[in-house]
C-alpha cells in the first residue's frame, strides 16, 4: 500500500521526518509490524510532542529531539484514556508532566500535556492541581458544536435555492463561446 501525502511514500515521509525524533522513539516507531502501524505510532508520538509544545507555549522551532516519549502501553484501545507515557527532557525524566492519551478511532490520536510550565518563560501554573476531577474525552458531532450557535442574519431561502441550483463543478469554457 502506498501513502499519498503529495507524491510521497511512507519510507520517503519517514526519511524526511526522522530528524524530529530521538533514536529511541524512532526504534519504537520502526518496530511496528508494517508501514501502516509504523505510521500510526508516528502519529501518536507526533501528537505527544505537539501537546507538550502547545502546553509550554512555544512553536515548532523548539528542537523536538530535546523531548523523548516512552509510550505506554504500546497499543491503546479506542475510547480509553491512558496516562502512563513518560517524557524525558534533555535526557532527564520529567516527573512534573502527565500526558493523557486516547484514540478516538482507528486513525486519530489525542494527547494532552498536563504539568508545570515553570522554566519555559511562562508563569508557574500547576495544571494538574487545577483540575483534580478531569472529565474523560468526549467525541462531539457537528450538531453538538453548532447547537448553541445563534444565527447572525435571518435565513434567506432564495440564497440556499440559488446555491443548490449551481453545478457541482465549473464547466470548462470552450473557445467557441467567445
TrEMBL record:
Key words, A-Z: Transferase
Q: What's a single GO CC term here?
A: cytosol
Which domain of life does the protein's organism represent?
Eukaryota
Quote one Gene Ontology molecular function term. Answer: magnesium ion binding
Which catalytic reaction applies to this protein?
A: apo-[ACP] + CoA = holo-[ACP] + adenosine 3',5'-bisphosphate + H(+); apo-[ACP] + acetyl-CoA = acetyl-[ACP] + adenosine 3',5'-bisphosphate + H(+)
List the EC numbers from the record.
Answer: 2.7.8.7
Q: Which residues form the 4'-phosphopantetheinyl transferase domain?
A: 11-108
InterPro entries this protein is in? 4-PPantetheinyl_Trfase_dom, 4-PPantetheinyl_Trfase_dom_sf, P-Pant_transferase_sf
Give the record's GO biological process terms: lysine biosynthetic process via aminoadipic acid
Family membership, please give it: Belongs to the P-Pant transferase superfamily. AcpS family.
Name of the protein described by the UniProt record:
L-aminoadipate-semialdehyde dehydrogenase-phosphopantetheinyl transferase
Amino acid at each position: 500500500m502506498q501513502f499519498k501525502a503529495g507524491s510521497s511514500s511512507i519510507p520517503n515521509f519517514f526519511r524526511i521526518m526522522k530528524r524530529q525524533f530521538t533514536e529511541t522513539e524512532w526504534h519504537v516507531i520502526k518496530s511496528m509490524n508494517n508501514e501502516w502501524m509504523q505510521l500510526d505510532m508516528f502519529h501518536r508520538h507526533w501528537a505527544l510532542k505537539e501537546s507538550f509544545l502547545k502546553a509550554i507555549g512555544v512553536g515548532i522551532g523548539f528542537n523536538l529531539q530535546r523531548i523523548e516519549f516512552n509510550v505506554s502501553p504500546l497499543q491503546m484501545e479506542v475510547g480509553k484514556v491512558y496516562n502512563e507515557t513518560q517524557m524525558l527532557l534533555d535526557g532527564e525524566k520529567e516527573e512534573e508532566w502527565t500526558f493523557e492519551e486516547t484514540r478516538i478511532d482507528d486513525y486519530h490520536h489525542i494527547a494532552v500535556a498536563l504539568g508545570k510550565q515553570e522554566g519555559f518563560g511562562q508563569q508557574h501554573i500547576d495544571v494538574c492541581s487545577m483540575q483534580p476531577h478531569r472529565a474523560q474525552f468526549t467525541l462531539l458531532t457537528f450538531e453538538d458544536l453548532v447547537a448553541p450557535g445563534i444565527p447572525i442574519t435571518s435565513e434567506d431561502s432564495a440564497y440556499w435555492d440559488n446555491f443548490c441550483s449551481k453545478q457541482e463543478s465549473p464547466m470548462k469554457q470552450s473557445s467557441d463561446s467567445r
